[in-house]
Specification:
The complex is a heterodimer of chains A (203) and B (300).
Chain A: E1 3-11, H1 17-20, E2 25-26, E3 40-41, E4 46-55, E5 59-60, E6 68-69, E7 72-73, E8 80-81, E9 85-91, E10 94-95, E11 108-109, E12 131-133, E13 138-145, E14 161-170, H2 172-183, H3 189-202
Helix pairs in contact in A: 2-3
Chain B: E1 3-11, E2 13-14, E3 21-23, E4 30-31, E5 40-41, E6 48-50, E7 55-56, E8 61-70, E9 77-82, E10 85-86, E11 105-106, E12 147-149, E13 154-160, E14 167-173, E15 199-206, E16 214-221, E17 226-228, E18 245-250, E19 256-265, H1 267-278, H2 284-296
Parallel strand pairs in B: 3-6
Antiparallel strand pairs in B: 1-19, 2-4, 5-13, 7-13, 8-12, 8-19, 9-10, 9-11, 9-13, 14-18, 15-16, 15-18, 16-17
Helix pairs in contact in B: 1-2
The chains are: A alpha+beta (203), B mainly beta (300).
């Protein structure tokens, strides 16, 4: 099991909505929803490639008196349905997504990278090139929301979710991943297998 | 991190009814006014969330814009400008049509979000749950070939609507709730386009028993006049008299756009330039291929 496809799903159920607004909340250790025991990191013999991310979508429309729109909360008079959520990847202390003026942004909007995907929210974004987490690095995924009225006061299950798909390379495959990185070759399972085959055929 | 997938989302949502823009994104629910047939920069246009300076590449950066998408209602479209040159042109090399609307990628061709509901009419904002709720707009357009922003260039993305979103600051007189001479009171004019339930922000108010500035709803709208609800905050509404004058604007629907681009930095930007010289498409695969070919040739 030297290459493993991994996923992490976060559901913010039970959190207080007002505490989430305008603040980046770690989906791993942010104290809201399901968490893990320590920050996510790679050991010296691990290499992670983050291949897909998603967060609850929102939609921009005209204000009306409806209270629900395609599974999202739409408060009366609001022009946004849903939590208006964004997802940022942080490697060590560096934010991955920047605004064009070089300042760290909120990240990928859920409207562009929705989770879950549906007929109505198909996604405009794919994470390519992938994000690499090198051996010994810590990484975090943060979610920031801006529409408090797109959430219940106490967030209900399914109102704010995030999803991360990554591949964990371990042991010898992590060494190969590093080698591919040095060579300028994309790190993916196909290329790792190709490198192994080329080593074997060279013997 | 020499090649990075980057995104930028713009919307006209601002934090308070009296604001038209915010630097960075803020919580709020008000859709700022966007005029018809006028281009607004999504970076520095003074509407919605903006950044601090025009977008540009430095000498060691190379940007490839790979996707553009915009809300499908209100006839929204996007234009990309590199330095001073607009990317999308009409067949007669103009950037506007004869009716004054702007050329560009329309939200019906590249919707944001992909799957957004189809407006009842091409230019209408959806106004009810039954308005095209079971329809979804899929993309008819893919930005291929992509758009290159070379080192040292500035670039901009501009949104234009062919239908006004909201009402820009307007002045009306004789607002009252007891009836007035409709012919002499501007509030009776249908050109304001106000209907019961509309939300307006009154930025100034003069006259006898003038109310305070703030956000109000149109409570009733008959053929001759409209009345105002109690202000949405805790202030009491001063009943307006016939000599009252108010200056107000009405916020509009939420409108948003999305840009996906890849930023090549440092050595990868040099390789991107080299690929461009060679006539090879600049994308992460080809940059990787060029690096491999350098390594296979013993390094250069």
């Amino acid at each position: 099991m030297a290459m493993r496809s991994q996923v992490y799903e976060w559901d913010c159920a039970g959190a207080t909505a007002t505490a989430l607004i305008g603040t980046k909340t770690s989906i791993f250790i942010g104290g809201a929803g399901n968490n893990i025991t320590k920050p996510a990191e790679t050991s010296a013999t691990q290499f992670i490639v983050i291949e897909d991310v998603g967060v609850t979508p929102s939609e921009y429309l005209s204000n009306s008196n409806i209270t629900a729109y395609r599974g999202l909360i739409l408060a009366s008079g609001n022009e946004v349905a849903g939590p208006r959520a964004y997802l940022q990847v942080t490697i060590n202390t560096t934010d991955y997504f920047l605004d064009p003026d070089g300042i760290g942004s909120d990240g990928v909007p859920g409207t562009a990278a929705p989770y879950p995907k549906s007929t109505f929210f198909q996604g405009n974004f794919n994470l390519y090139p992938d994000v690499y987490v090198l051996p010994g690095q810590t990484f975090d995924i943060g979610v920031t929301c801006y529409n408090v009225s797109g959430l219940s006061g106490t967030v209900a299950k399914g109102e704010l979710q995030a999803f991360v798909k990554y591949t964990l390379y371990d042991g010898p495959d992590a060494l190969i991943a590093n080698k591919l990185l040095e060579m300028g070759v994309s790190v993916n399972p196909g290329n790792v297998d190709w490198y192994k085959r080329s080593l074997l055929s060279g013997q | 991190m020499a090649m990075r997938s980057q995104v930028y989302e713009w919307s006209n949502i601002v934090d308070t009814a009296s604001n038209t823009s915010n630097t960075r994104r803020k919580s709020g629910r008000f859709g700022a006014f966007v005029g018809a047939n006028k281009q607004y920069s999504v970076f520095t246009g003074g509407v919605g969330n903006n950044i601090t300076k025009p977008a540009n590449t430095n000498a060691t950066q190379f940007i490839v814009i790979e996707d553009l998408a915009v809300s499908p209602h209100l006839g929204a479209s996007l234009q990309v400008t590199i330095n001073t040159t607009d990317y999308f042109q009409t067949p007669d090399t103009q950037i506007t049509y004869t009716n004054g609307s702007f050329a560009g990628i329309s939200g019906l061709a590249s919707p944001y979000p992909r799957g957004a509901r189809m407006p009842a009419a091409e230019t209408a904002a959806p106004t009810s749950i039954t308005d095209g709720v079971n329809t979804s707009v899929n993309n008819s357009f893919a930005l291929y070939p992509s758009i290159y922003v070379l080192p040292g260039q500035t670039f901009d993305v501009k949104i234009a609507l062919d239908t006004a979103n909201g009402t820009e600051s307007a002045i009306t007189t004789g607002v009252d709730s007891t009836g007035a001479d409709a012919t002499s009171n501007e509030h009776a004019l249908t050109s304001h386009g106000l209907v019961a339930g509309d939300e307006i922000y009154i930025s100034s108010w003069t006259g006898t028993s003038a109310g305070s500035t703030g956000t109000y709803n149109i409570a009733t709208k008959t053929s001759g006049e409209f009345t105002l609800s109690v202000e949405q905050d805790t202030d009491a509404l001063g009943i307006a008299n016939a000599d009252n004058r108010i200056k107000f604007h009405r916020n509009g629907a939420g409108v948003a756009c999305f840009i996906k681009y890849t930023l090549y930095d440092g050595p990868d930007a040099l390789i991107a330039n080299k690929l461009l010289e060679m006539g090879v498409t600049v994308n992460p695969n080809n940059v990787d291929w060029y690096k491999r070919s350098l390594l296979e040739n013993g390094g250069v």
